[in-house]
Specification:
single chain; 165 residues; alpha+beta
């Protein structure tokens, strides 16, 4: 009787060790898959927000009390699901959004008043956002950097002229 009890005790201990040795890699794989999926979700959300900013920009609209650039940045922030503020170094995502206008013929950057006239190319970009991996094994590496951009051609300038930037 003693002999069978000691064998049963050894079996129970080995089952526990085997369970731990299989569960840890399984959990690491599961959290790695979730981590990668979340990173893809963040990237696609920021890309969508930049696209919405460009869609707003090409119409030459402005929000009440704001210039066109601030209106575009607010639109991008509104569509970013809070990732813009959460992932920026100073937690103010508006500084991470850049709006540039280019001449469609020379592709030279146009600055100053009137650079947002119809026919010019508008580029809305979001950069400088970083995110630390959730997996403890990957935390020692560099954080994941996000940068997205979207571009389109401005619609015809309204009769009242291009809005102030």
């Amino acid at each position: 009787m003693r002999r069978s009890n000691s064998r049963g005790g050894r079996r129970r201990g080995s089952v526990l060790v085997e369970g731990v040795l299989t569960t840890l890699p399984l959990l690491a794989f599961l959290f790695g898959a979730l981590d990668l999926a979340f990173a893809i979700f963040i990237k696609s959300t920021l890309q969508f927000a930049a696209r919405q900013g460009v869609r707003y920009a090409v119409t030459s609209q402005t929000m009440a009390g704001m210039g066109q650039d601030d209106s575009i940045k607010t639109t991008v922030k509104d569509y970013s699901l809070g990732f813009l503020d959460a992932l920026s170094p100073n937690h103010d995502g508006m500084t991470q959004v850049a709006i540039d206008y280019y001449d469609p013929v020379t592709l030279a950057k146009v600055t100053g008043a009137g650079s947002n006239v119809g026919g010019n190319i508008v580029v809305v970009s979001v950069s400088g956002l970083s995110w630390a991996w959730m997996i403890p094994l990957l935390r020692s590496t560099q954080p994941l950097q996000f940068a997205v951009a979207s571009a389109d051609i401005m619609e015809a300038t309204p009769l009242a002229g291009a809005p102030p930037r």
